[in-house]
Specification:
five-stranded parallel β-sheet, globular, six-stranded antiparallel β-sheet, binds flavin-adenine dinucleotide, alpha/beta
Length: 254
């Protein structure tokens, strides 16, 4: 699946562009960040995603969606891909795809699940697993755009080893009083963690979120079940459904 087809004649966000991998780093034992250089990239907003298309030598293609992890930065795009066992595209991108290899990219996609640095309201981010990716783009865009709007992140991971961007989140939260980061461990917590493993529910959203009276913008991203549970709980707590924005990381093959 290494050959990238010639980009189409469509322009703008519908065009397939050929990007190349310029660097990669492991985020966890099963997740890898790909740093791509995409010529003529039109720019993006935090929260958007791209379509990635791989083409095999025999012409077979496979296409999947991946959120953009970085704030807008010219033609540089960062994607973080979680390896799904037996996953056609994610196993290739995390295990086989090498620096210098091409890949076709289309986008950016999405106009609702976005955050702009001009937004004046406090923000609650709730991510489950790889659902942190577009939320990290928002955290990075807030800094890059000079926003002082207070952000709170609640990040649900199975165990301490599964958290993406751990060092960066620790440093950003330490150096920025406007950013709070709270982890919720669902299977195994670190030693001496004050509470047993649990899921994100009323307790975590009350303790580490914002009260609905502050009318925060809420962004919830992760597996479909996680997103639906968290969004329903936020609404039950009194948050305006119109201010709870969701992104479901369901399968995108087909
Ligand atoms: C808007 C959007 C943004 C996304 N952003 C990211 C991202 O930033 N990082 C990331 O790692 N993934 C992201 N995904 C998921 C991604 O598009 C693929 O679905 C995922 O990489 C699996 O593809 P695959 O080809 O490896 O697996 P497939 O070959 O398609 O599937 C293999 C098996 O895994 C199951 N499966 C596939 N996808 C998932 C899934 N997401 N959750 C649970 N089971 C699944 C399938 O049902 C099948 O049984 C996003 C999805 C959407 C819709």
């Amino acid at each position: 699946m290494a050959r990238a087809a010639v980009p189409g004649r469509l322009s703008g966000r519908l065009a397939w562009r050929v990007g190349r991998l310029v660097a990669a780093r492991d985020e966890t034992p099963s997740a890898r960040t790909l740093v791509l250089d995409v010529p003529d990239w039109p720019g993006h907003q935090a929260g958007q995603h791209v379509d990635v298309r791989l083409t095999a030598e025999d012409g077979y293609t496979a296409q999947r969606s991946y959120s953009i992890a970085n704030a807008a930065d010219g033609g540089r795009l960062e994607l973080t891909v979680q390896r799904v066992p037996e996953g056609e595209v994610s196993e290739y991108l995390t295990g086989v795809y090498r620096v210098g290899d091409p890949v076709e990219i289309r986008g950016p996609v999405g106009g609702w699940f976005v955050w702009r640095p001009a937004e004046p309201d406090p923000v609650l981010l709730v991510g489950g697993g790889s659902g942190i990716v577009p939320l990290m783009a928002m955290i990075r865009a807030r800094k890059a755009g000079g926003s002082r709007v207070p952000f709170r992140l609640i990040y649900s991971v199975r165990s301490p080893e599964d958290g993406y961007y751990a060092d960066e989140l620790r440093t950003r939260a330490r150096d920025d009083s406007g950013l709070d980061v709270a982890y919720v461990y669902t299977r195994r917590a670190p030693r001496n963690w004050p509470e047993p493993p649990r899921r994100v529910g009323v307790a975590a959203l009350n303790t580490a979120g914002w009260p609905p009276e502050l009318a925060p913008l809420c962004y919830v991203c992760g597996p479909t079940g996680f997103v639906e549970t968290v969004a329903d709980t936020l609404v039950a707590l009194g948050h305006d459904p119109a201010r709870v924005r969701t992104e479901r990381f369901g399968p995108t093959g087909g």
